[in-house]
Each structure stands twice: as structure tokens, then as C-alpha cells.
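User: My instructor asked us to take a sequence, write out its structure as C-alpha cells, and then describe one feature of it. I'm not sure where to start. Here is the sequence I was given:
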Amino acid sequence: MEFEGTVFRIMPVTKGTSARGEWQRQDVVFEYADGTYSRKICVTFFNKPDDVARLKEGATYQVSVNVESREYNGRWYTDIRAWRLQPKQTEAPAAPMPDLPPIAEEPSYASSPAAEVDDLPF
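Assistant: Let's start with the prediction itself. The C-alpha cells for your sequence are:
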């Protein structure tokens, strides 16, 4: 799933240790326009400190996420994890056309009969 959102808030880093080793996660709240309303969505960056370090509050990004829900003790939890992040491509203003030299007019051969060109085959 992809969406285009503006960074609303970058939350603090959470670190820990598991059987697989050290891990860190950081949540980032994005604001995106869904039709006429603006909505907020909290996206988790798991072991991606470099991606989060590039983010700036107020900047717009194209975010690719995986959405997954799981059950624990009769309650359901939804996790939204980012797997790709790209800055929004701003459209560059059109480059002005360079000034072109004026088009030279072709010489007129009709004014002098001696200058007529015979292009017919023999």
C-alpha cells in the first residue's frame, strides 16, 4: 500500500534486545488528505534509523507500507510498517526557451531571369 503524506511528528526511538539481537523502532505520524478530510496515520520504521534521520517535519513523502493485524489475548492490534520512503517529486518549473536567432529568408530567384535553376532531367 502506498500513500503520499506530510510528516506531522517524529516520535522518540524505542530500543530493545531480543533473542535475535538489538532492535530499534521509531514511529512517525504522517498527515495525508483523504478526499476532503485530512487524516493522520502512525507508521513504524523498524531497524531503519537512516530513513528516519532523513525525514523533516512538514516535508512530503511517498510512503510504501505493509499493514498487518494480529490477535493477542483476545484483542486485535494493527501494525503499519514502512518499507520504502521517497521524497515527493516537485515539478520543476519549465525552463524558458532560449532566444533563437531570426530565421533567415531565402533569396528570391524570381526577380532575375538569368538565375533560374533548371532542375529537369535531360
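For the description part of your assignment, you could build on this observation: The mean pLDDT is 84. Try explaining in your own words what that tells you about the chain.
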